[in-house]
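Field: COMPLEX_INPUT
Field: COMPONENT_COUNT = two
Field: RESIDUE_TOTAL = 863
Field: MODE = joint
Values follow.
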Amino acid sequence: MSDTLLKVRDLKIGATAYPPGEKPRDIEIVHGVSFDLERGKVLGLIGESGAGKSTIGLASMAYGRGGVKITGGEVWVNGRDILKTSLSDIRKLRGGEVTYVSQSAAASFNPAKRIMDQVVEAAVEKKKFTRKEAEARARELFAKLGLPDPDNIGKRYPHQVSGGQLQRCMTALALCPEPDLVVFDEPTTALDVTTQIDVLMAIKEAIRDTGVAALYITHDLAVVAQVSDDIMVLRMGETVEYGTTDQIINNPQEEYTKALVSVRSIEHEEKQPTPEPVLQVDGITARYKGLNFDVLHNVNVEVHPGQTLAVVGESGSGKSTLARVITGLLPPRDGEITFAGRTLSPDLAGRSREDLRELQMIYQMADVAMNPRQTVGTIIGRPLEFYFNMRGAEKRKRIIELLDEIELGEGFIDRYPAELSGGQKQRVCIARALAAKPKMIICDEVTSALDPLVADGILKLLLNLQKIEDVAYLFITHDLATVRAISDSIAVMYQGRVVRYGPKSQVLSPPFDDYTDLLLSSVPEMHLGWLEEVVAHRKMESAGN
Amino acid sequence: MHPVIKLVSQRIALGLLLLFGASALIFGLTEALPGDAAQAVLGQSATPEALANLREEMGLNRPALTRYFEWLGGIVQGDMGTSLTNKLDIATSIGSRLGNTLFLAFWAALVSVPLAIFLGLLAVRYRNRWPDKLISAVTLTTISIPEFLIGYVLVYFVAVKLGMFSPLAMINDSMSFWQKLNAIALPVIVLTMVVLAHMMRMTRAAILNVMQSAYVETAELKGLSNFKVIWRHALPNAIAPIVNVVMLNLAYLVVGVVVVEVVFVYPGMGQYLVDHVTKRDVPVVLACGVIFAAIYIGLNMVADIVAILANPRLRHPK
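Field: COMPLEX_OUTPUT
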């Protein structure tokens, strides 16, 4: 008997598209993909959003999300084609032979049930174990995955454990019925970098110890390089390149793979600080209404004209709260904000139209930051009317200028947000901020929701616009690669405090404080064996643990 | 303090406050009606002297606020005053009437609530297929037909033609339990048909809403059967909106059944209230109003409390 566990041949998957203003039509989203996976091996599926990687992963359980349908090809698991078996046989396979770990464990655990009930459910349902045996195995897995108090954590509800812990519980859920194959669908993408390492290591060890085979789906090539034996690069539903991990990382053949391997290689020369900062944040302490502790403690930073300050930190570090204080959405308890030489009113209502105009904002989720019923022209034209009283031909001319600046062009003026890609939407948001001719733009995780190559394009655009318009950025991000690419100075935030602050070259050079060291070392690097090296050298536990 | 205890006690305090407000509103509205109890007792042809004497005797000349608090004080102690028309103690007369109304409401609820939730689950299981459409069509039809019409149609076909069940739902204390059940069978059926649609549609909508979530996908990927996915994973997260609609309908079963009581000549609160409204028997109207308000507010309060208890984040804080 061959050792091939999963054999996929010429897999074709279709869905129904609903283009705005047109009739729904059937489209093909995966165009004939083939691969093999042996017992105990890990295959990484990598690609950008829309590449079809999750769809292929779910197809190995004969499952189509939403209106997705498998339209052709073969999927062999343990020697039988699961696309040709009955629904009751597929139900035996799901949660038994093949299990699934989703991107967001927080959403994938039922909030109304205890963790243990959910972890053992499939194993008990399949009569693989009795309830008692399954619980014993679950506790063993909790311990193996490095969860605290493995004997009792199962008694908790999902909201009572942290995101990183829940993601490990999800891995335990998938491993509990002793499956032959686990589909990991971006299992660490939603986690902070420092937490990602721990979960990644736990998953890797669990795969090794249980001898299970895995499909590991991610958009992050550096991550997949740490866990997989083979890698398949996918783009728009087609295989770009398929080979061993070593081959793909160290000797990529296709242009697209090369671009993925060398992504985030923007070089940005650091500028010297000027004598007059455009924004001065002075001793800001802030808390949210109803909380009895401060979320920002005595924060002091400066942004210089035409330069970029990157504020970097993990979720909960207070970086977005800082943006809310600067924009006036959250008046601080203490401290002062000076902008363009004048002291800003602590709350929004006390600010002049000029204050508002000169300080613009771009958000993480471009699609919810735009009115879906307005055209691109209306969206960009609104600040032109509001701040400069532009009308008619004059306004249209300026909108087209702005569209040219963001490299979209006049053709986009009558489109609706739904007709744009993620990167294009973010470009429109940039144009809307630029339309006000601001002195400073606060960019709150503007590239986090985008694919790496698209994010690269946005960063290049922002740098270019900075040169032309001489606008300053306060760039909030959790991603250190982005920080390297764009900043002139950096503030590292941790638990509401700025723990390290200065010019980029200084902040990113040793000696480091413990937290900056942890943060810097946690950014996945594109070489094999990086994960083990990092884990061996860590000085400090991550906060999300 | 545990957040659940805090929230629940807040709800109860708010409910009592609301009930207090409702009693003031009911009292104020009956005060605002033209004529008063003395006028009602003596009729239109009464002489001004007689009216003045009776008002003095009944204490109607005192300020409204004083009379309101006296009346409220009496209610709190279970004294609802005496009826103007038949001079009987209102609490005693209402006692048996309320018992009958609750008896009918209880059996209607016992049939309709589980049936509605079951049909809702069935509709989700076969959504957009014929069982779903059939369930929706039938329940929406029964809710659209006026209840007196359903009542008379049932009386004609079931009681008269088929000879099943009693066409009149008159019950009294000398009847056995089974005789009583037999007597109220038809009104229970009518009430069930009236309240079924709301609860079933809400169950369907609430569960379908939850069916979009990632944890339902997780359950499907565990290879569970459709019904187990719905029952174990979707329903527990859809409880709050369902309970809200269930409670609204239970309140309707108690306070809104006047028409059905009249059709089946059932000796419940509704008929009692209507009788005394026509006779301008103000104390009885007041008492009934307060009891209905208490039931309405009480049931909605229960819905709120169930919604709080159904939320694991509140039940098991970090």
